[in-house]
Amino acid sequence: MLTPSSHQLFFQTQQHFMPIVHQGNYLRSFHSPPHMRPPLCLQYAIWTVASNGHPKYGCYHDALYRRARQYLDSDELKVCTPP
Q1: What's the whole-model pTM score?
Q2: CB-based burial, 43-62: b 16+ in 10 Å, e otherwise
Q3: pLDDT digit string, tens, across residues 19-50
């Protein structure tokens, strides 16, 4: 699932439902060095939405959703917890 085709699947089929991610900027940052990549929670959220209802990737939807939530919760704790 974690392939360029999953990104294409999102931008071809799902992006019109929530056009908040610019395809060019997202893909450019995804193929950048690790410290410049999109947050893992965003990557997994995109893969989750792309897999929803897809005949090949639909079986991964729940696992991808749980991982996206895990990364989102982790990122939220980093922001909300004082040093």
Answers
A1: 0.79
A2: bbbbbbbbbbebeebeebbe
A3: 888 888 888 998 899 999 998 888 898 888 88
